[in-house]
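Encoded backbone
================
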Amino acid sequence: MVLVDGAGLPLAVDIESASPAEVTLIEPLLDQAVTPYVPPRLIYDRAADSDPLRQRLAERNIELICPHRRGRVRPATQDGRPLRRYRNRWIVERTISWLQSFKRLVTRYEFYSFLFHSFAKLACLMIVLRRF
């Protein structure tokens, strides 16, 4: 998982196995940001459509912008105005594609997860240095 700012610069990166739900991984990712600045709006895909997550992020003064899942039983919590910002999700996808340019991250050669995590952080650092 990658946390990026509005320009696409990585602020935090975290790895986890495929079994935990993505909703539980968002808050630890926010805690790992390298700067004290945390964006006031978090754009995510439909996997983060969770009312308890929205409440916990609202306590941190972060607005979660994600479309509701299909077949949602509860009433909608956001109207179409914040979802206009969802069009900026391409910035996140672009940063992920920048990370995919590092072959060591595409194919995981490391046995230990802390080595892979270190290479992911190094790749984020190289992306930040290229931008400046």
Remarks:
- The beta strands are 2-4, 10-13, 41-43, 63-65.
- The chain has a mean pLDDT of 84.
- The CA atoms of residues 46 and 67 lie 6 Å apart.
- The chain has six helices and four strands.
